[in-house]
Amino acid sequence: MLRILRNSIILFFIILFFSLCNLALWAVTRDPVRQRRAVQRSTRFWIRATLRGLNISFSVSGAEHLRGDRNYFLIANHISYADVLILYALRPLTGITTVEVEGGGLDGFLAKMGGSLFIERRSVKHLRGELAKVTAILRAGFDVLIFPEGTTTDGRSPMKPFKTAFFAAAAEAPAPLLPIAIRYETVNGRPAREGDLLESVAYYGDISFMAHAKKFLALKSITAAVTILPPVEATAHHRDELGATLRERIQAERDGHPQS
Residue 114 and residue 36: Cα distance in Å, rounded? Predict the structure, then answer.
């Protein structure tokens, strides 16, 4: 209970100052490119503070694939809301999420403050306009992040088939696809896949947010491994073929069985 209280207080103050900082940046910065860059930097700063406060750490392999002189369309497996924290700490990003999240309370407000792009994925007639939004952000030189499974999984089961419609934005921009695998290695100092420890991190299925957050905030520490795989040109193959190939590579890294 004390651990939950401690972590809740830390989160409260971080969310408060993050919101005030980013509200100010949205209000006073008029140029949209400068505005987005400022918001990304601020968001990354506060997310790194969150990781330190909650004692979440991660290692990175394959960092040579992430060049500082170009931008990417990042795709990653999705296990937990901790994935978002880790990836935003890795590099300033614009995340793509759904309009359902935008109207979803605190998570929608935080996503909006962090500069997320909300897309309508339920209607084909909106797809052209949504692709144009993502393409424009890529062409402006920003990194974009999407979780192509479209949902979270338990971190053990096979990954969901990738939804690849937005790969077309990367091809149009053009920007390379950058596959990233996230694997949780330890929880409270023990192997994450031991017993049901991973269940405290993985947020999926029918569990309510509050029920899971209670388990998550009770944790003393989490470590993760992030593997950045070689980038792939979005025009190299048909997007469905790319989706299947990149899903296999990411899942192999997630499960600790890297492909040669």
Answer: 9
- C-alpha span between 196 and 194 (Å, rounded): 6
* Largest separation between any pair of C-alpha atoms in the chain: 52
**Cα first-last separation, the chain:** 45
Reference 251, options 179, 178, 159; nearest CA is 159
Average pLDDT score over residue span 91-118 = 86
* Mean pLDDT to the nearest integer, 100-124: 81
SS3 94: strand
- Read off the amino acid at residue 59: S
Q: How far apart are CA 137 and CA 142, in angstroms?
A: 6
Residues pairing with 74 in the sheet = 145, 178
User: What are the backbone angles phi and psi of residue 179, rounded to the nearest 5°?
Assistant: -75, 135
Q: Are 70 and 93 a contacting pair, CB within 8 Å?
A: no
CA quadruple 185, 190, 191, 192: dihedral positive or negative? Answer: negative
Instruction: Report pLDDT digits (tens) over 50-94.
Output: 999 999 999 999 999 998 889 999 999 999 999 999 999 999 999
Q: Please, are residues 29 and 38 in contact by the beta-carbon 8 Å criterion? A: yes
pLDDT, tens digit, 9 for 90 and up, residues 192-219: 988 788 999 999 888 888 899 999 999 9
All residues at 6 or more sequence positions from 2 whose CB lies less than 8 Å from its CB, including other chains? none
Complete DSSP assignment for 138-183: HHTT--EEE-TTSS---SSSPPPPPP-TTHHHHHHTT--EEEEEEE
